[in-house]
Structure formats: C-alpha cells, structure tokens
Design brief:
Spore Coat Polysaccharide Biosynthesis Protein SpsA, Chain A; 24% strand; four-stranded parallel sheet; alpha/beta; 4 strands; Glyco_trans_2-like
Length: 112
C-alpha cells in the first residue's frame, strides 16, 4: 500500500468532513458536482461525511434541484438563502450548520 493511500485511510477512520457546495444559479452543474463529490467521499470516508448545498438565492431552479438531491442522497442537506448573501453569508451559514470535524468549500460551477 502506498504511503499516501495509507495516510488517507488512517485519517478517514478517525475524522469526518463536511463539504459545502456553494451554489448560485447552478442548475446546469449542481447534480454532476454532487454526484462526483459523493463518489469520492464515499471511497475515503465511508459514511463519515456530509454534503451541504447552500443555495445562495438562486433564481434559475437550483433550489428545486438541491431539494431533489437531498431526497436522493442521505448525506446531502439543502439550505436556501431567500436572497443572495454573497460569500460571507455562505460561510456564516456553513459554519453554523456543518456537523463534522473538518469543513471545506467547493463551488458548484467546478469539476473534480
């Protein structure tokens, strides 16, 4: 076993992670991003992770997609801002809602 793989396995046995997906008008990309992140986290952390989708006041249907993903994946929680609060608002919401040892942020318009 490679050293890096061993370290990852060892860390994932002891810690949990919250991945915050920051979304504003991301109906085109959100589902694929959640699917990709879930697939990677499942390999590293088993069930010791959560994915928080923070919809920052989207107007393009992102809210509905986030809600559907929450129903599809038990590890996903969808949180909605009624209006766009910007990056600071997303960070405040994320830090108040995340439940795990570590937290990281990922934009919904990116690819793994």
């Amino acid at each position: 076993m490679k050293i890096e793989a061993y370290k990852q396995k060892k860390l994932s046995n002891h810690y949990s992670i919250s991945v915050v997906i920051m979304a504003f008008n991301e109906r085109e990309t959100l589902e694929q991003v959640v699917t990709d992140i879930d697939s990677h986290l499942k390999q590293l952390f088993s069930n010791k992770y959560e994915i928080l989708i923070i919809d920052d006041g989207s107007t393009d249907g992102t809210e509905k997609i986030a809600d559907n993903l929450q129903m599809k994946y038990p590890v996903v929680s969808a949180i909605h801002h009624k209006k766009n609060e910007g990056l600071g608002g997303v960070y405040r919401t994320a830090f108040s809602k995340a439940k795990n040892d570590f937290i990281t942020f990922y934009p919904a318009d990116s690819q793994l």
